[in-house]
Amino acid sequence: MNPLEATSATTLTEEETKASTELASAWNILVFDDPVNLMEYVTKVLQKVFAYPREQAEDLMLTIHTAGKALVWTGAREPAELYVQQLHGFQLQASLEKASS
Amino acid sequence: MMKVVPTVEGGLRIEVGTATDWLVLEQIAPDALKMKKESLASRLSALMDEASEWDEMVVPELSDLFNRQLHCVQETVQGAQKASEEDPGLGHLFISQEDGPIWYGALNQARIALEGYYRFGPAQEIEEVESFPPPKRSAFIRSQFYSALQSVLLEHVIE
Q1: Closest-CA residue of chain A to B147
Q2: Which of B106, B36, B45, B25 is nearest to A84 (CA)?
């Protein structure tokens, strides 16, 4: 076996492993307060995107409003990215961060 | 004075009284495009890490969605204004229940852009608003109107 091929095969496997580990890790979705979005709208968006009951969505909205941000969901990276995409579509400031283990 | 009335079909009817009312409605899309340097989709993307490839994968789709919202609102306003010029008795426009979220999104874009441009900040005191230079004062008043219209949309149209 060509030693170069062997090295590159090993590297690829490491990258693949890293990628799958990243995907399998838990990720947090954060929503940030802003001076524009109405409180009722933020509540409705959280209900719509995450199917949260009204009370839970309202609690999260109030945390966003008072603390400046709230952790609204934790889970795998792929669905998290889809959720953030939806939140951005509703013009909410949202980001993704790796959950500390 | 402009009146906003819920319709039995679940939408809104905006009764437009004066030429100034039409000017305010016409201004929604230009206000939303006030931040020329960076689109709203790009600014939201800045919150994501580089590994997400957000700029390539998501930003074009969001830009398209936001542009469609502005286009729809602009078309509705222009169509209604044209109809009112032909028949002065038709000084109104309708927002259907289906178009409610589109209007809400367009108004939100306008308010986000005006806030980004003028930095109104938290609730203003009346004295403070009166001391604003005229362009900022009129932008603030428009932003307040957009916000009021959004509240009516949330209450009566958007589920």
Answers
A1: A38
A2: B45
Q: How many CB atoms lie within 10 A of CB B148?
A: 13
The number of beta carbons lying within 10 Å of the beta carbon of residue B129 is: 14
Interface contact flag, B154 A40, Cβ < 8 Å: yes
Question: Would you call B34 exposed, middle or buried from its count of C-beta atoms within 10 A (0-12, 13-18, 19+)?
Answer: middle
- The answer to whether B58 contacts A85, with C-beta atoms less than 8 Å apart, is yes
ipTM confidence: 0.92
Q: How many CB atoms lie within 10 A of CB B70?
A: 20
| pTM of the predicted model as reported, rounded to 2 decimal places | 0.88
B105 touches A at CB < 8 Å: yes
The separation between CA B129 and the C-alpha centre of its own chain, rounded to angstroms, equals 21
Report pLDDT digits (tens) over B74-91. Answer: 999 999 999 998 887 778
Burial of B122 (C-beta count, 10 Å sphere; 0-12/13-18/19+): exposed
Question: Are residues B142 and B27 in contact, defined by beta-carbon separation less than 8 angstroms?
Answer: yes
CA pseudo-torsion sign B126, A43, B58, A34: positive
A-B interface: how many C-beta pairs under 8 angstroms? Answer: 51
Nearest to B151 among A34, A38, A96 (CB): A38
Distance CA B114, CA B34 (A): 7
CA distances (Å), A75 to each of A24, A72, A88, A101, B72, in order?
A: 9, 11, 18, 12, 36
